[in-house]
Amino acid sequence: MMEKKIAKDLLKIKAVFFRPDEPFTWASGIKSPVYCDNRLTLTAPEVRLDVEQGLAQLIKKNYPEAEVLMGTSTAGIAHAAITAHLLNMPMGYVRSGAKDHGRQNQIEGRLEPGQKVVVVEDLISTGGSVLEVVDVLRQAGADVLGVVSIFTYGMKKGLERLAAANVKNVSLTNFDVVAEAAAEEGYIKPEDVQRLIAFRNNPSDESWIKK
Prior knowledge:
This protein is an alpha/beta fold. The chain is built from seven helices and ten strands.
C-alpha cells in the first residue's frame, strides 16, 4: 500500500518527526506533536524516487487530462520538476509574490489560458498557501484540475477551505497513516496515537499534551 510505504519512508529520514512529550511550537503559536520537513526527501535518493514515482502515479490516475504541472514556491518546485520529467510534461511554478523586476511574473514557465494544470505541493495543513497558488493560476486562465501533495494533515479547517474553493487534493500519505506507522515501527508508543489524532482533530485544543 503506497500510503504506508511513503509513511515509513518519511519516518525513516525524519521528514516527519513525532515528539508528543516535547511539542514543537509553530509560527502561529500552536503547540504541535509533529514536525514535517519534506525537503529532506530531496537529499535521500531512494525515498525521493518513491515520492516522485508516487506523485506521477497519482497524477496519471486522478488527473489523466493534465497538460502542465505547477509547483508551489518553494517546497513544491523540485517535486514538480522531477515528477514532470518522469511524465514528460511541461512544468513551471508559482511565486509567493510577483517579482519586482523584469517582466514581474508570478507564474514562471509558459502557461496558456485554458491549459489543464495540476498543482504540486509538499504539505497541506490549513490549505491557505496552496489555495493562493490555485487562485493565481485561475486568474491567469488556467483550468486547475486539482492538487497532488506528499503529505496532508487532514485538518478540518484545511478540508473545509479546499472544499469551499472547489479544489481537489490527493496525497501520497496522511497524518493518520504516518501516526499508525510510527507506532508500528516503535518511533512512538502505541498509546500516543490517540493523542496525535486529538491534535489533528483540533490543533488549538492543547488537552492532548496532558499525558
